[in-house]
């Protein structure tokens, strides 16, 4: 499995946004238990190396697995791929999906990131074969 990993400054910004969103959702849905998810990486079986642009477009909610995620659009020379960064999970209870519409979110352009191979084992992850990419 491979991962698209924002640089540390972007990760810090995403952590702040994650905290703000989860607090707002918790305040609007007091009966729900909402847990943050880490790492804030986008995972895929294979990620091409010729990336031209990466944009975090919006916040999504998957009602099947109850995951909250940042929706990424990854642009290549000849195609576009959609990835996601899971950042929260509704552990119990439900959220009013219209409360997501009340959350203000600005599009984020990632300019520095790294691509890496990732393995998961015993509730931990390991990153190797990293390649840093600086986008124009």
What does this entry look like structurally?
- The protein is an alpha+beta fold.
- It is built from two helices and nine strands.
- The longest helix is centred in the first third of the chain and has 21 residues, at 8-28.
Question: How would you describe this structure in keywords?
Answer:
2 helices; four-stranded antiparallel β-sheet; alpha+beta; about 140 residues; globular
Q: Count the strands? A: 9
- What is the CA-atom radius of gyration, in angstroms? 15 Å
Trace the largest sheet across and list its strands.
Answer: 2-6-5-4-7
Tally the helices. Answer: 2
Task: Report helical residue fraction.
Answer: 10-25%
Uncertain segments are none
Largest sheet: 5 strands, antiparallel
Distance between the terminal alpha carbons, to the nearest Å?
26 Å
Whole-number average pLDDT? 93
Return the structural class: alpha+beta
Q: Beta-strand percentage?
A: over 45%
Query: How would you spell out the order of helices and strands?
Result: EHEEEEEHEEE
Approximate shape: globular
Structure summarized in a few sentences:
This protein is of the alpha+beta class.
Strand and helix layout:
Elements: E1 2-6, H1 8-28, E2 33-36, E3 42-44, E4 51-62, E5 67-76, E6 80-92, H2 98-101, E7 108-110, E8 112-121, E9 124-134
Antiparallel strand pairs: 1-3, 1-8, 2-6, 4-5, 4-7, 5-6, 8-9
